[in-house]
User: Fold this.
Amino acid sequence: MLKKSLKLGIATGVALATAATAATAAQCSNDTWKKVMAAGKLVVGVKADYKPWGFRDPSGKLIGMEADMAQDVADAMGVELEMVPVQSSNRMQFLEQGKIDLMIATMSDREDRRKIVGIVGPNYYTSGTNVMSPKAVGIKKWDDLKDKPVCGKQGAFYNKIVTERYGAKVIAFTGNAEAKQALRDKKCVAWVYDDSSIMSDLSSGEYNDFEMPLNSEDDNPWGLAVPLAEKNCVFGNFMSGMQYNWLSSGRLIELEKKWGIQPTKFLADKKELYKDWLAK
Amino acid sequence: MAMLKPIPGISSASATDMAVLKPVTVATPGSASDINFSRFVSDLPWWTLPALAAIFMMWPIAAYAQSTFTMADATSALIRWLPFLVFQGFVFNILISVTTMALGTIAGVVLGLMQVSPNRMIAQPAWLITQTFRNSPWLVLLFIVMLAFPFKIEIGSLTIQIPDWIKAVIGLSLPIMANISEVVRGAIASVPSGQWEAAESLAYSRQQTLWRIILPQCFKRMIPPWMNWYAILTMATPLVSLLGVEEIVTLSQQAMAAENSRPELLVPFYGFCLVIFFAYCYPIARWTIALERKYTVKL
Assistant:
């Protein structure tokens, strides 16, 4: 008798719990959206140490391609913009905790991250992983990195991939300056980072003894994110629209040029893909 | 066999203020009230600061004679970022250190007074707390507070956000509290016991003795070690950069990123941090030692 009622109780409990989850998923409270509109202020998390996407000018102001994108969003919503500097290690927590309403912070769109924050499509950018290495080392393929020390930056997802896939020993630093110094000091055979950043360093003429010898791997789209609960609600859908318009209007290509980023095929392709069929 | 009667002033501290031979007292190593840090800093000659600054500014030419990046480039980069690093970075370090010191001193004085309580139920827990926080690594305490404290408190409908730097202040004030507690305990213990006895003979209660006779004498003795701890704390504030709080080291890293992460900038920028901390702590250390000298004579 007791056992039976206990079983029944558990079953009811489970059923109730399932119903509760389903209900929250289905209905949108739009808390963040309403809060932003009521306060008249949108708080966006951007990078402060990732030139040219998010960095500071000497007065301390946050500028860069993603800072401009954040301004576009605020303008479209008709609210004021406040930018909060985030780091790779805390950007998702800031969004979860409500310290920021929106995150545009050079984040690669990964499956595990989608479980934590509301990443909405279409992705606005993409980058691949490559290494910068002294020409004298003569690295030819990714497997050459096996058991060799490789410098990287803390918080980058490809540190793990390079370790697991190619057996490299990654030494992660807090900043790129430290990582590049270590590379020059021959503490590592290569520096693993975004291909576009490496390209701009190589073209600066200060790294003439270095090369980018490998084919870029893991071409990974970047994603901006809203709080997970808002993903399929007003805010998430609005940000999808923003990204669609950025891509189809060529606004991002314009920004790419403004910030001196090498033009990417990704943005050109997307502009073509989303072009207005009536436009001449 | 009867124990030899101890000779006051020789085998134990003298219990009177009469002209007796005083035992040589040496500060025990690791004691909270020794001020070795300030002594070391204040013993450095005055030209240490300009010398340090010169070394850090010359570094790029020495290290990268072949590089296209010149000393002039490094200097102009540093000058460009100087106001930002000082006014948004270093000033914030000072703010953290002052707030932490205020919080740590209040808590530390309470804890120190509890330590000298005749009631063992009060004194022993106070001793345990003091020893625990005095002997824990600061960074570990910081991490615990950062992770254990909520980022916001909800009281009814009111939501109070707790910024990271407040949590950092709480984390840093724990070891400061414990060390100030030892400073207070040590200062009270250093007042000759004759003072207590004299007060007792004049029918002062314990509370009256403590507040009216002992603590006013302790105050002066506590100032040098207290300032010493302030200087140590200020030097330790860059620890909070590891927790993402935006202070001078975090902002230096961001400034270097904005300058294309040139490795040549590492030494000038981090060197500047060192120079500015030194410039701030050096006068404090000199002052601490001067005060210590002034007050020891009057023992």
Notes: The interface with chain A takes residues 67-69, 80-81, 83-84, 88, 151-152, 161, 244, 246, 251, 253-258, 260-263, 265-266 of chain B (CB under 8 Å). Chain B has one domain: 42-297. The mean pLDDT of chain B is 83. Residues 42-297 of chain B form a domain with the MetI-like fold fold (CATH 1.10.3720.10).
